[in-house]
Design brief:
Layout lengths: L1 H7 L2 E3 H8 L3 H13 L4 E2 L8 E3 L1 H8 L7
Antiparallel strand pairs: 1-3, 2-3
């Protein structure tokens, strides 16, 4: 359920996932840490609180073909 939130919103925080899934924040954080370890998501703020997590592969697919013309 946590990973599916990244398909809806490729950049998200723990609070948003908690709200969408009704899973407690500590469990969401554990799942996010596991997703980071296997390389599916990345933490982008570098902070200890109010962190944002990004599903890079999804964003890469979305941005394909959007490079500026030369």
């Amino acid at each position: 359920m946590v990973f599916h939130q990244f398909c809806r919103m490729p950049v998200v925080n723990v609070a948003r996932i908690t709200q969408a899934t009704n899973i407690v924040p500590s469990s969401v954080s554990k799942v996010l840490n596991a997703l980071i370890e296997i390389g599916l998501v990345r933490e982008v703020t570098g902070q200890k609180r109010n962190r944002l997590f990004c599903y890079d592969r999804y964003l890469k697919v979305l941005s394909e073909g959007t490079e500026p013309l030369k």
